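Researcher: Here's the sequence for the chain we discussed earlier.
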Amino acid sequence: MESFSHYHGPDWSPERLLFHQNLEQFADRVGLIVGLQGNGKITQDAAYDEIKKLWSLLRTSRSSLFDL
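Model: Thanks. This is the structure I predict for it:
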């Protein structure tokens, strides 16, 4: 896996940096899951379930970081 990209922006904060890293990790993991499913290593249902879990974790992360 590659390291995280640098987060730049006028509204930088530690919370935004952490969410940005979580988002990149989500994207990396989804890419791996899609690759596994595309190569027949896991079923579509299993891939969907894993991605759904990752999405839930990302939403929870966002909610806890930004108190939405």
